[in-house]
Give the backbone structure.
Amino acid sequence: MDWNQITQAIQGLSKDVSGKVKETADVLKLRQKASVEKQRIRDAYEEIGRLYFKECEGKEVAPEYQEFFDTIAEASAAVAEFKSKIEELRNTKTCPECGAEMDKEAAFCAKCGAKMPEPEPEPEEKGECEAVEADFCEVEECEAAEEAEGEATEEAECEAEAADAKAACECEAAEEAEAVNVCCCDEKEE
């Protein structure tokens, strides 16, 4: 082979490679444009769905859409719960006006200046004695309601009194007292 043939072969290959590169670049450009258009379609579908959801929320919808409405409602509730837990962990809150995150104790939003609603007072935790007293009061209320409805029998009342007597009695005869529905403490009171 002489140099002219080698040069022509190299020039031919470079034209082929150049053509392939141009073709590949054109294909990539067209694929990118198609991808952009597909995204526009997806965005339009999403917006149609969002608008339809807002328009029909709380109304009866066709059965084929109900599952999607239920899914959106469940997911929205879960997102709100997760967001609340995040705020609790980070000791923050969200501005209801602009959505900015701020310190939980802030009275005004640092971003938009909106006044924050007063926080709801957290319920006080009851001490052990208060909790037992509250439980006891609930039991008494339930017993009174049952008696008022005529559902409590004399036998049930005796059993309840014996249980109360046993719980209040700290003497050794407590087990015997339960058996006869009497407590040694009753004798002391008389």
